[in-house]
Amino acid sequence: MNIAESDLSNFATIESELSAKLGKPVSAVCAKLEYEMLEMDEEDRVMFLEDYGVDPHTGPTLNKLIKLAFDTVGLMYYFTTGVKETRAWTIPL
User: Fold this and answer.
1) Is 56 exposed, middle or buried (0-12, 13-18, 19+ CB in 10 A)?
2) What is the pTM of this model?
3) 14: CB partners within 8 A, 6+ apart
4) Count of CB atoms situated within 10 Å of the CB of 3
5) CA distance 41 to 49
6) What is the pLDDT of residue 32?
7) Which of 9, 27, 52, 83 could form a Cys-Cys staple with 65, CB 3.0–4.6 A?
8) Whether 55 contacts 63, CB under 8 Å
9) Which residue in 29, 21, 27 sits closest to 4, CA to CA?
10) What would the DSSP string read from start to end of the chain?
11) Sign of CA dihedral 41, 55, 49, 26
């Protein structure tokens, strides 16, 4: 679910309440922040999230949403690399 910047401090409560109501896993994302972070490198992203009081490892981020989606449907990435290319394959767990 997309949440407002003002809800970032309460994202865990929002996720757990909605998850309990739906009986399914729920992940919050602030699309506005994700958009602002598109061009940032990892170090700047971490500082940016910390400025909002969000832990970049457990907070409501797009990466967390993607991981939850993959876990929910039982998929994972498998990487192969060679001389010409590196590929990420989506495979069942």
Assistant:
1) middle
2) 0.76
3) 1, 3, 7, 28
4) 18
5) 12
6) 93
7) 27
8) no
9) 29
10) -B--GGGGGGHHHHHHHHHHHHTS----B-HHHHHHTTT--HHHHHHHHHHTT--TTTSS-HHHHHHHHHHHHTEEEEEEE-SS-EEEEEEE-
11) positive
Contact criterion met (CB below 8 Å) for 74 and 92? yes
Q: Which residues of the chain have pLDDT under 70?
A: none
Unique residue bearing structure tokens 């981020």: 61
CA–CA separation, 66 and 70 (whole Å): 6
State the Cα angle at 42 between 84 and 18, rounded to 5°. 110
